[in-house]
């Protein structure tokens, strides 16, 4: 079955520290992969996406993600976290042959000064 | 930057009532979607809409739900006879070419 797993429900980091949010997927077709961020009471903002090509993808707000087919992973990274990065982060997977995205359960990021 | 606009931002309704959630997608987009997020849970696909018809729907999207694009600019989700478990954040999204989804800021539906 198609699924997305975000193993970390809640992560706390200090401002300025590096960040890695994990995402693993199970998908029969060639996946398209996405990371979205949701601030409290807000909608879903696209951080970055992977369709094909270079497996290291750059996004907005200084985020990047690396697609590793052998590990079925698409982890999100940021070298130095800012307090404004505190939010919920969702990994999602889609494909060329379907019209829907499958989301993970999300990781809540808390940033301490 | 173009936005997907959803109204209202918060809707409270009594159980058994009908609600209509409204969305204005990005003007040159052709594909439209509704997703929902029950509090504390993941975002779930409900339905996709293209060329004035449903192209895909989930098992959640039963006869209680319907979608419509009544006037070429709005995209609506109607929930008939709401239940307590329909309480959720409902997100509209639209897509142009390739895989450029844009999500709205959501409507929080509370059924009491």
Number of helices of chain A: 0
Instruction: Estimate the global geometry of chain B from the Cα principal axes.
Output: globular
Oligomer description: heterodimer
Q: Mean of the pLDDT scores of chain B?
A: 93
What count of helical segments of chain B does DSSP give?
0
Q: Could you tell me the strand content of chain A as a percent range?
A: over 45%
Blueprint of the fold:
The complex is a heterodimer of chains A (113) and B (112).
Chain A: E1 3-5, E2 10-14, E3 19-21, E4 24-26, E5 32-38, E6 45-50, E7 56-58, E8 64-68, E9 73-78, E10 87-94, E11 102-103, E12 107-112
Parallel strand pairs in A: 2-12
Antiparallel strand pairs in A: 1-4, 3-9, 5-6, 5-10, 7-8, 8-9, 10-11, 10-12
Chain B: E1 5-7, E2 10-13, E3 19-24, E4 31-37, E5 43-50, E6 53-57, E7 65-68, E8 75-79, E9 88-95, E10 101-103, E11 107-111
Parallel strand pairs in B: 2-11
Antiparallel strand pairs in B: 1-3, 3-8, 4-5, 4-9, 5-6, 7-8, 9-10, 9-11
Briefly, what is this?
The complex is a heterodimer of chains A (113) and B (112). Chain A is mainly beta.
Features:
heterodimer, A: 113 residues, mainly beta, six-stranded mixed sheet, four-stranded antiparallel sheet, globular, B: 112 residues
Structure write-up:
The complex is a heterodimer of chains A (113) and B (112). Chain A is mostly beta strands. Chain A has no helices and 12 strands. In chain A, the strands form 3 sheets. In chain A, strands 2, 5, 6, 10, 11 and 12 form a 6-stranded mixed sheet that branches. In chain A, strands 3-9-8-7 form a 4-stranded antiparallel sheet, with no helix packed on it. In chain A, strands 1-4 form a two-stranded antiparallel ribbon. In chain A, a hairpin with a 4-residue loop joins strand 8 and strand 9. In chain B, strands 2, 4, 5, 6, 9, 10 and 11 form a 7-stranded mixed sheet that branches. Chain B starts with a strand and ends with a strand. In chain B, 37% of the residues are buried. Classes of the chains: A mainly beta (113), B mainly beta (112). Chains A and B meet through strand 5, strand 6, strand 10 and strand 11 of A and strand 4, strand 5 and strand 10 of B.
């Amino acid at each position: 079955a198609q699924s997305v797993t975000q193993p970390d429900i809640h992560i706390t980091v200090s401002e300025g520290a590096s960040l890695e949010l994990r995402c693993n997927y199970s998908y029969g077709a060639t996946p398209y992969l996405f990371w979205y961020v949701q601030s409290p009471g807000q909608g879903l903002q696209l951080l970055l996406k992977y369709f094909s090509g270079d497996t290291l993808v750059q996004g907005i707000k200084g985020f990047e993600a690396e697609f590793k087919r052998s590990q079925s992973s698409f982890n999100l990274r940021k070298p130095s976290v800012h307090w404004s990065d505190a939010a919920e982060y969702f990994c999602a997977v889609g494909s060329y042959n379907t019209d829907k995205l499958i989301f993970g359960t999300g990781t809540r990021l808390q940033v301490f000064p | 930057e173009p936005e997907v606009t959803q109204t209202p931002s918060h809707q409270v309704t009594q159980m058994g009532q009908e609600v209509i959630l409204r969305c204005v997608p990005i003007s040159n987009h052709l594909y439209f979607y509704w997703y929902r997020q029950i509090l504390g849970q993941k975002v779930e696909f409900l339905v996709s809409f293209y060329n004035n018809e449903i192209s895909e729907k989930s098992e959640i999207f039963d006869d209680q739900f319907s979608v419509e694009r009544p006037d070429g600019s709005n995209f609506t989700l109607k929930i008939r006879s709401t239940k307590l478990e329909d309480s959720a954040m409902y997100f509209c999204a639209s897509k142009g070419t390739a895989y450029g989804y844009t999500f709205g800021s959501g409507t929080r539906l509370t059924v009491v």
